[in-house]
Design the sequence.
């Protein structure tokens, strides 16, 4: 290994110090000599080779072939002399050089602008009077070119005068319809849909319910209202919820809502009147609003209780009938119930001032049922007298509401109940307290079979004796 700090050279025999001793030491072997060094070459000449003592390194023959030694430059030679032996290359011909672009960076103007915050920005832009050359647009692909046909109009000519306008009015209905993409085109370009201002005006067709005969619909409603209220078992099935059937066509439904939806929009329009009458009868029985169109949200079922009660009480039994309760007087020795007979009940009604009706006591397997029907004349006078009797009992709190309260809390055949029996202060005789009300559609199941068969329903709103 070469010593990094060689000893200082000895003075020569001539007594002159070596050249390397006159110059200050250099930090790098390959750097330029410091200024003012002895033997320094001029600025235009190449530096002279160093005279410091070096150890020669033997060169291998193979290395000489791989890395040939560089020829030593002559003293006082210029730094980069031109070799006369190397010929100069001819300049390229002008034909091989591509033409310059229409504009480049040298055509741009340097511009500045001041922003809102006070800073200055620089940008480049073409001069305002730069002559632009319009370049032709590239041709459209073949698949985007319009397909021509024998009847295709020229692009700059109006339609033929013999073709009437507007064209959609003259086309057949099957040509106006939208076609499948796979169908072949006839050669006419498709246009966007436009509003036909001259199309014939067709008035909106009213729903089928609007053309229904109102008198026939009212008769159907009263008929089905009686059918739904005649049987207590059937009425309980509707009120408690369960599987019901359509009385108009016989189809079964899982619940009353499905029946109402079917009755309002029946599949068979021939029986539309019957189905609409059944729809109204079911809604009145359930206490729903029959004036609203039934839908899946069941919003028609939200009818206030007072309106639902008014809809039920509007349907009265015809001929006008007042139902009297608590007419049983006790039990016989054989255990059968006995009560006021028809003559006794007529006499009692005459005492109260209502002599226009006829009494009919109802009996069952165990005797008197404690129920008497007072039937009035089949006219407006009979209806007025029946209403007066019902109002008389209602003012004494012996009407429908009073009887419901007594029937729910006490026994009917109790002789000691003060709500059912009162004692005469003068004679000490016990008398039955009568409860009664005007019979409506929901009371049909309380009538006997003969009276139920002969009776029918009427509405107070559209009461008409001619029906």
Sequence:
């Amino acid at each position: 290994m070469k010593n990094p700090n060689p000893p200082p050279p000895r003075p020569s025999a001539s007594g002159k110090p070596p050249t390397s001793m006159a110059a200050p030491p250099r930090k790098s072997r390959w750097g330029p000599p410091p200024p003012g060094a002895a033997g320094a070459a001029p600025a235009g000449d190449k530096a002279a080779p160093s005279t410091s003592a070096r150890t020669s390194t033997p060169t291998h023959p193979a290395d000489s072939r791989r890395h040939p030694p560089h020829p030593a430059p002559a003293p006082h030679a210029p730094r980069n002399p031109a070799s006369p032996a190397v010929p100069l290359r001819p300049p390229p011909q002008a034909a091989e050089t591509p033409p310059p672009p229409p504009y480049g960076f040298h055509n741009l103007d340097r511009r500045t602008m001041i922003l809102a915050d006070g800073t200055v920005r620089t940008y480049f832009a073409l001069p305002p009077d730069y002559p632009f050359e319009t370049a032709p647009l590239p041709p459209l692909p073949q698949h985007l070119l319009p397909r021509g046909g024998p009847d295709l109009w020229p692009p700059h000519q109006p339609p033929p005068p013999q073709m009437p306008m507007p064209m959609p009015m003259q086309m057949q209905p099957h040509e106006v319809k939208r076609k499948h993409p796979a169908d072949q085109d006839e050669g006419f370009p498709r246009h966007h849909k436009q509003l036909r201002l001259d199309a014939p005006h067709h008035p909106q067709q009213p729903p089928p319910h609007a053309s229904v005969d109102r008198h026939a619909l009212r008769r159907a409603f009263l008929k089905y209202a009686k059918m739904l209220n005649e049987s207590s078992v059937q009425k309980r099935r509707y009120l408690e919820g369960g599987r019901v059937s359509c009385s108009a066509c016989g189809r079964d439904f899982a619940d009353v809502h499905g029946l109402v939806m079917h009755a309002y929009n029946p599949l068979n329009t021939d029986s539309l009147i019957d189905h609409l009458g059944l729809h109204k009868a079911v809604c009145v029985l359930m206490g729903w609003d029959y004036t609203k169109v039934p839908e899946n949200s069941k919003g028609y079922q939200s009818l206030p209780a007072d309106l639902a009660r008014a809809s039920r009480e509007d349907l009265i039994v015809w001929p006008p009938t007042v139902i009297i309760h608590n007419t049983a007087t006790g039990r016989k020795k054989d255990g059968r119930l006995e009560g006021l007979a028809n003559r006794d009940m007529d006499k009692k009604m005459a005492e109260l001032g209502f002599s226009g009706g006829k009494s009919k006591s109802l009996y069952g397997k165990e005797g008197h049922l404690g129920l008497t029907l007072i039937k009035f004349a089949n006219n407006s006078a009979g209806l007025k007298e029946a209403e007066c009797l019902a109002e008389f009992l209602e003012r004494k709190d012996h009407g429908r509401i009073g009887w419901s309260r007594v029937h729910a809390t006490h026994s009917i055949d109790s002789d000691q109940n003060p709500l059912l029996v009162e004692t005469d202060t003068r004679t000490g005789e016990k008398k039955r307290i009568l409860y009664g009300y005007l019979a409506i559609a929901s009371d049909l199941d309380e009538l006997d079979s003969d009276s139920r068969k002969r009776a029918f329903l009427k509405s107070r709103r559209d009461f008409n004796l001619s029906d």
